[in-house]
Amino acid sequence: MRLFRWETLKVLRDWKVRILLAALILFVATYSTLYQNRSVELPIEETRAQYTDTQDLFRAIPQEHFETETGQDIYDRLARQQSILGMQRYILSEKEGNTVEGLEEIVSDYVDQGIEMAENQLYFHAADDFESQELLLTFMPSEIEINNRLKFLNYLKENDVAIDWNPMSPSLVLYTLVNIIAGVFIYIIAAIFGADRFSRDQENNWSITQGLPYTWKFQWRQRTFISWVLIWMTLIIGILISYFVSRLSTDTGTLMYPVQLYDGESAVYISILQYVVMTLLLAMALSYVIIKLSTGLSWVFRNIYLTITIVVAIFFIPYIFTIISPLGSWNPFLYIQLLPMLEGEWADIGNVNIVKMLIAIALFYILIEILFHFIFKLIPTRTGRLERRKN
């Protein structure tokens, strides 16, 4: 414990580390403020566009196509859809939740209306005997999108959550921030923290870093853990500050609001709170392996830029599988990136899921341990070469 405390203080006394940690917390903590300056499309604007599309659809379809039994049914459903969109537009403009107080009987409930509209859209996809079905479907979402929309609306109904009219609500900003951290961002931070200090200590403190009284592997693991703790303490504090600062300026939204997550080949909806906790835990596990690799490579190459380049380049390995086949969902390199798995980019491959990702992370951890078990049998000399340690 005394050695751990001494090593931690030694790392923190480095002015570069302090600057990196300060920059990290400054960026994460102020993210919600920066996000407010973005230009985003409000849900009410999307609803207006859908309302206009429905009007155009009535004009585009020949009137004689509505004269059959199926055509009349579709006409009635389209008219109902336009009515629903008009009421939803009003509900969103009032910013009171799923309905408007005092007008519940007139404007009804946003979620119930959305479910009815989605069911009508599925009916349009099934109406093969309608002469203008192809034209009709060009104005409609795909069946997969409609079914996902139904899952979203059913989640709102079952959990009594109101539709969020504000895409910049604190909970949705938190969701965006966590996705940024779980992407290439964590690779860059892990690479920077691991790429310099460990190798520099071996060069500058040659006389006390030869594995006595502690082995190379012990020093490597300890430095990895220290870097990992410092990074995630800073990130978590920054995330909390960002969220609460956002809450001061906007009081809409809830952490129970649903977001999409792919469970294998199909989408499910979970609360933002569940998503944030799960994503951060997975990112923490993955980042530990990245820092471990970066710290070890810094000792091998003694070049901070080369180490950072190699570690960040690893992040882009999964893009190879957009060109060649990954040969199944058990390919561990599919799980080097976290977000494509959660967002369903690998859904066509098969059952790509969280359990397999945890197994992949464990495999990478074991592989790195085995690799550096042999590397640490060679130690650096004053000239920067590698030679076998003499016991």
UniProtKB/TrEMBL annotation:
| Residue spans crossing the bilayer | 172-195, 225-246, 266-291, 303-324, 357-379
Could you list this entry's UniProt keywords, alphabetically sorted: Membrane, Transmembrane, Transmembrane helix
**Which top-rank group of organisms is this from?**
Bacteria
What protein does this entry describe?
ABC transporter permease
